[in-house]
Amino acid sequence: MLQKWRGQNQHEAEPLDHEKMIKELRVAIGPLSGHASKFCTDACLRRYLVARGWNLEKAKKMLQDTLEWRSNYKPHEIRWEQVEEEGKTGKVSRANFVDRFGRPVLIMRPGKQNTKTGEGNVRHLVYLIENAILNLPEGQEQMSWLIDFTGYSMNATNIQPKTARDIINVTQSHYPERLAIIVLYNPPKIFQALFKVISYFIDPKTYLKIKFVYPNDKESIEIMKSYFDTDNLPREFGGKANFNLNYDHEEFSKLMVEDDIKKAKFWESDNNDTNGHSETTS
């Protein structure tokens, strides 16, 4: 039943005139200023339209919900020092390699979960998503997630179903079309029970981006090759690169602090009216 539902077309036909739809959405959401104006670039509006099958009213509602969420949650104001405790084990970090298309890669290691606070986990991930967006190369809008299940077990320190649902909700509702692919690398059978539960909360388009990859499976190896250049991919993920992927918290913290300065400079111009016509980091 689930697989049949996943395969159905949940979205309206794509219009021929994208620019017209973007302009119509801009008119529909009304005048913007400050952070909202800087956030709502044409590229941003297009992502919301794509996420809602080019349905203007649905895209408007989704975008308005995001603007309200960003106004309250203030993800652009989160700094590394506020979430550093969550990151000490390297359970989520930005990789020092990109995928085959030059997209940044977030590596997640559920086996290194170190806290039980759902909100702390969500806030830490939001921070790193914003950081990955900040570091997107010109012309690129998406990132890849590589979830490494080494050391994973269903114990009290691992992500709980509610936290997983909260993460799914935030990423799907407020970061539409930001995920290119989600690789679940070598997940144990015990994880399948959790995935079966949370999969019902995953949007059909996002569900299709999830790839189960097993190191000794030929089909899985081809999936990895299609998304990652094996010459740059670490050996632990089936690649040929022989660099150290061990998480260095001190070095990663330095990188995040530097990026915090860059992020602050970008968003401090909130009061400048950009009219949303040039792409930004969010």
Automatic annotation (TrEMBL):
Residues 80-245 form the CRAL-TRIO domain. GO terms for molecular function: phosphatidylinositol transfer activity. SMART domains: CRAL_TRIO_N, SEC14. InterPro entries: CRAL-TRIO_dom, CRAL-TRIO_dom_sf, CRAL/TRIO_N_dom, CRAL/TRIO_N_dom_sf, PI_Transfer_CRAL-TRIO. Pfam families: CRAL_TRIO (PF00650), CRAL_TRIO_N (PF03765). This is CRAL-TRIO domain-containing protein. The lineage of its organism: Eukaryota, Viridiplantae, Streptophyta, Embryophyta, Tracheophyta.
